[in-house]
Write a structure and sequence with these properties.
- The chain has 332 residues and is an alpha/beta fold.
- It has a single domain, classed as 3-Layer(aba) Sandwich (Rossmann fold).
- The chain is built from eleven helices and 13 strands.
- The strands form two sheets. An eight-stranded mixed β-sheet has the order 7-8-9-3-10-11-13-12, with helices on both faces. Strands 1, 2, 4, 5 and 6 form a five-stranded antiparallel β-sheet that branches.
- It holds the Pfam family ABC_tran.
- It is a peripheral membrane protein.
- It is found in: Cell inner membrane.
- GO terms for molecular function: ATP binding; ATP hydrolysis activity.
Length: 332
């Protein structure tokens, strides 16, 4: 595939997104699923995208892969990947990009795997769709990658159908398929949510190790701050279609500034909360059809004042630490 030279090819950012919007134009009105998201990620870096269900984190991932169907519309002030402007790509060029330089791991592996095809067929076709290699070479690479994600007897697993495998095995194969063409960026949409804790821990370790070895960037989408805190280099916290706080992981865990981030952290079970009722953020996410003016979190916030009717600025409060809140500060 021919690549297009760009003045941004020397940029430190593999992915540079500014002002990303995904709006759904419906009869009831405009649903602003993603409303002005900006994020950047370097090669080999792991970014955790965290938020409640409905915060827009999965839709952000789908939009980067150009997998948003009508009536959804994607637009951005800047949408660059590896020096290329994604907004100028044709459907065919984007198709060549997906699964090759940019891959996605879905929450349910059965969405990725075809139940009527054997594992070897699906993996070999994934490679041959992007490269002119022999079936034997594609098969050898598939077996190698299955071993990399911790699947025992990978050559034997090639001849089975997805329904012959456990949920953990299916998810490992889905991860292996994402890794087959050595992508520069992987977007993982809560891929361990349905797995037990032991398998979850194994997959998190293997994914982190593979990203380091292959210099692959990773966006890990999750609602569980506890899981991603041990995986990601940086965290971006989303609420109602917007990023409200972003910082290096240690900075978020040790000195979170936004009241919503405080709420997410307080809801994580710890030894100190054993036997006690867990904290819940009061209220619910506002309707994306009828967003309130100003800060979207103000109706649920313990620090809210009349000033919160005005749109808060997204400001840097420490190196690489940005927050969108009028009353930001470390929780007492």
């Amino acid at each position: 595939m021919q690549t297009h030279a760009s003045p941004l090819s020397s940029s430190p950012w593999l992915l540079d997104v500014q002002g990303l919007k995904v709006w759904f134009h419906t009869r009831a009105g405009v649903v602003k699923a993603v409303d002005g998201v900006s994020l950047q990620i370097k090669r080999g870096e792991i970014l955790g995208l965290v938020g409640e269900s409905g915060s827009g984190k999965s839709m952000t991932g789908f939009s980067l892969m150009n997998l948003v169907d009508a009536p959804g519309r994607i637009q951005a002030d800047r949408l660059f990947f590896d020096g290329r402007d994604l907004q100028t790509l044709s459907a065919g060029e984007y198709r060549a990009l997906r699964g090759n330089d940019m891959a996605m791991i879905f929450q349910d592996p059965m969405m990725t795997l075809n139940p009527t095809l054997r594992v070897d067929t699906q993996m070999i076709e994934t490679i041959q769709a992007h490269e002119s290699v022999s079936r034997a070479a594609a098969r050898a690479r598939s077996i190698e990658v299955l071993g990399m994600v911790g699947i025992p007897a990978p050559a034997d697993r090639m001849s089975v159908y997805p329904h012959h495998l456990s949920g953990g095995m299916r998810q490992r194969i889905a991860i292996a398929i994402a890794l087959l063409n050595r992508p520069k960026l992987i977007i993982a949409d809560e891929p361990t949510t349905a797995l037990d804790v032991t398998i979850q821990g194994q997959i998190l370790y293997e994914v982190q190790k593979l990203c380091r070895e292959m210099d692959t960037a990773l966006i890990w989408i999750t609602h569980d701050l506890a899981i991603v805190s041990g995986l990601a280099d940086r965290l971006a916290v989303m609420y109602a279609g917007r990023i409200v706080e972003t910082a290096p992981t240690a900075e978020i865990i040790g000195a979170a500034q936004h009241p919503y981030t405080h709420g997410l952290m307080a809801s994580i079970p710890t030894f100190d909360t054993r036997g006690k009722e867990l904290f819940q953020i009061p209220g619910s996410t506002p309707s994306l059809l009828n967003m309130p003016e100003g800060c979207p979190f103000r109706s649920r916030c313990y620090r809210a004042t009349p000033q919160c009717v005005q749109e808060p600025l997204f400001e840097e409060v420490a190196p690489l630490h940005k927050v969108s809140c009028w009353h930001r500060g470390v929780q007492a």
